[in-house]
Design brief:
The chain is of the alpha/beta class and 309 residues long. It has 3 domains: 70 residues, Orthogonal Bundle (Arc Repressor Mutant, subunit A); 104 residues, D-Maltodextrin-Binding Protein, domain 2 (3-Layer(aba) Sandwich), CATH 3.40.190.10; 104 residues, 3-Layer(aba) Sandwich (D-Maltodextrin-Binding Protein, domain 2), CATH 3.40.190.10. Strand 1 and strand 2 form a beta hairpin. The termini are far apart.
Length: 309
């Protein structure tokens, strides 16, 4: 009979890449770990691991078992958490991922609300410009309870994940208050092509802009700086004569302080859609469900309108 301990031993070997390192991490002797692994393979009737040039590697059966083992361990942890939460309400832990741009637009207020209403629930927020492969693995692999993500129409998620549209927000072209184009009306694409830009990514931001300029047969502007940080884009745009494409909610404080101005132009805009991404076949824990509901409520305050007065 396979038990959870064998699942954990197996996953430790996979994560550490060797029996010796896994044994040290588990505070076991290497022979004991080897015996437990052999017993697991005997129970399943097939090898799960093989020794390769780079250490221990998974067999085809091992890769299948790894995914199921992670889900099993996660489900066991969730069962433990749910029983604890039923016995002592508002306790537990939530692990989720969120795109970096959404922390200021949505994450800060949602987490503040959640702490006020659930002060005894621990939260592990993973913040970055997550590539799609990381998102699929983190949620489908049961590392996160859910994700709060920007999803483009061309993005394909794993078929084991579900999505729920929470809100959308628009972006516009912003410059410093003393920029030569600030305050001008009836700007053309040719006007916008004469200045350097700072964009959010070489693969998305630049290509999006270039497609717009190409559609009007206008020369491409120079992309001077590329970054995955909207904080950096906003702060650079305040002090350097860049043109920047910023989400409207991200620019509100800088506009109120007189540091940024949205350019009046009809050519360049984008609507971003925020989604809750979660496992299709695994229910959220009560703690994770509570935080997801807080994000749903917070998303209602994020709208489409321009940030300009």
């Amino acid at each position: 009979m396979i038990d959870l301990r064998q699942f954990k031993y197996f996953l430790a070997i996979v994560e550490h890449g060797s029996f010796s390192r896994a044994a040290a991490a588990l505070n076991l002797s290497q022979p004991s770990l080897s015996v437990a692994t052999k017993a697991l393979e005997t129970e399943l009737g097939t090898p799960l691991l093989k020794r390769g040039m780079k250490g221990v590697e998974l067999t085809d059966a091992g890769r299948i078992f790894e995914r199921r083992a992670r889900t099993t361990i996660r489900e066991a942890d969730r069962a433990f958490e749910e029983v604890q939460q039923a016995a002592a309400a508002k306790s537990g832990k939530v692990t989720f991922g969120i795109n970096s741009v959404l922390t200021e637009i949505l994450g800060n207020q949602a987490l503040a609300r959640f702490y006020r209403s659930h002060p005894n629930i621990d939260v592990d927020a993973n913040v970055s410009a997550h590539p799609l492969s990381d998102l699929n693995f983190a949620i489908d692999g049961a590392r996160w309870d859910f994700g709060i993500m920007l999803l483009r129409p061309d993005i394909e998620l794993a078929d084991t994940l579900s999505t729920e549209h929470l809100t959308s927000f628009d972006s516009g072209v912003y410059v410093s208050a003393d920029h030569p184009l600030a305050g001008q009306s009836e700007l053309s694409l040719a006007d916008l092509s004469k200045f350097d830009w700072i964009t959010s990514s070489a693969s998305v931001g630049a290509s999006f802009l270039f497609d717009i300029f190409d559609s009007k047969s206008v020369p491409h502007p120079r992309i001077s700086t590329v970054t995955n940080s909207f904080n950096l884009i906003r702060d650079m745009a305040k002090t350097v004569p860049y043109l920047s494409l910023l989400p409207h909610p991200f620019a509100l404080d800088a506009i109120a302080a007189g540091e940024l101005v949205e350019l009046a132009q009809p050519y360049i805009s984008i609507t971003s859609k925020v989604h809750l991404v979660y496992p299709k076949h695994t229910p959220l824990t009560p703690a994770a469900s509570s935080l997801a509901n807080v994000f749903r409520e917070a998303a209602k305050t994020v709208g489409h309108s321009s940030a300009s007065p």
